[in-house]
Amino acid sequence: MTEDDGSLSYYKRINCICGWEVKFVYGVAFTLAVFEAKRLLVLSLEILAEWQVIYFAGGSQPVAFTLMDVTLGLSCALITIRTICKMIDEIQFMLQCCGHTSYADWFLFDWQRDVIFTKKVDYASQEEMATQSRISDEDYRYRGVPFKDEPICCFIFLLYHHNIGFNVNERSLSEISNIINHRCSRHRYRISLKRVEKFNTKCSLMLSYNPQIDTISDQQQSSVKAELFWRTERCPQKGVVKQVASKLLRALSEKGLALLVNHGIPECKMKAAYRALDAFCELPEETRAKYERVSPANHGYVKPGMEKFSDEKELRHAFNVTGCEGILPEEEIHGFRSAVEELERDFKQLSTMLLTALSVGLEQSHDFLLSKHAHILGPGNASTLRLLYYPPLCAPEQGLTRCGVHCDYGTFTLLAQDCEGGLEIQTPHGERWSRVGHLPGAILVNTGELLAHWTKGQLPALRHRVVMPEHCGRGRHSIAFFVHPDDDVAIEPLDTKITVASQETTPCRLQKKKRSVLTAYQHLQRRFRETYAS
Ligand SMILES: O=C(O)CCC(=O)C(=O)O
Ligand SMILES: [Fe+2]
């Protein structure tokens, strides 16, 4: 890395981190394609030159067959190459590794196009990268991704469904898992495969990676899964709910967060909301001011600098929607209302399911937590849908950040984010920060202060922040759904018998001081006073 005119350029060559197996198969497929192409060329030339002779000797039929054979051979070889490339890309994507300087490179430029059509591009140079063709959110999956010699991966765990998009069969999955488990053991990746026919799913891939923990023991590994199986069932079987509950609880107790796939909220609804907020942020300042949040209500537009979690300037636009018929900029932005109302409905439904699972996991009746959250998005409950937009920034700047360190205040938060990245979490039992990568369509569940307090810290509140981008980004969009109990619910530790291992946890601020019993409303207002500039 060199420093030139104050700008940083990276001069690191691109190496493949893949094992010899992948390189070998890749090489064979490529050689095959070259060989078949050569054969096709030579044959075509021969036919052209000798056509009269072939015709009179009655050789046109065998020649036609050979031609067909070669053509098929070539396309098969090309398909093989493509499949292998896709498989490698998919693995890199899931591991959130590779890329030139980080896996986020994939989203920054059209890697494949540039490799093919440009003679020499320095992918390491930020200036050069800024001039490259950008790749859209929809496209990146179908393009190649750059390799890197040292994976910059963050802690992530997920259950990824075959029928959502990991389009390979079970055999190739187990081959991939063998290769990765063998080759990447030093990077602490683990992949395991499961068949879950019962839930109308062909197979799932479980992947875990944690660079902060020296080794992931088998026991730790099996404790970080969380998935929602029963979203389409009105009356789910008890066993299914119990299974999800225990996975969710283990994930939240050990990591403070869980990643949900197969949750039923389509990505297009998130994107509609992102677009609606973009349009709002482009309105003149005086128009936006009409919709500003006015305390003590939480509904409305929060302009940059209005809410502060740290001493740094925090550059973000937020629009809080509390569901209590607060005004929305529908007049200026047609479709704003429907975009947020649809999401509110979906997030509320998802929260209801998670509250049921948590109640069961806490060994209470299934409606135990639901009864404390009876009025989500209605009067007397502070649950809020929040649209967030962080404008693009080119380089980290002193005293400026996107979102300072904080714990969320309520029961839990559901968070959807685009591919820009920047979200970081502090694992409950450590001081180090880990990146949370972007998995398209997945929703993050993180524990809030009240759930931590209720469970005496056994489900610890997750400290998180959004840092500035390393490269020129495109701006970050996210949607948070803060689930809060009804205003009058007292926040005393619950009488629960949590079955997960009790561990020493980093206390969130609520637990540090002994205070008289507060209601959920009082607790929230206290937090708002601390974070909102008057
Ligand atoms: O934008 C994000 O990803 C995080 C936002 C957040 O943590 C919050 O608003 O509480
Ligand atoms: Fe937060």
UniProtKB/TrEMBL annotation:
Fe2OG dioxygenase domain span: 381-485
One Pfam assignment: 2OG-FeII_Oxy
InterPro entries: DIOX_N, IPNS-like_FE2OG_OXY, IPNS-like_sf, Iron_ascorbate_oxido_reductase, Oxoglu/Fe-dep_dioxygenase_dom, Tetraspanin_EC2_sf
Gene Ontology CC entries for this record: membrane
PANTHER family: 2-OXOGLUTARATE (2OG) AND FE(II)-DEPENDENT OXYGENASE SUPERFAMILY PROTEIN-RELATED
Name of this protein: Fe2OG dioxygenase domain-containing protein
Organism listed in the record: Ooceraea biroi
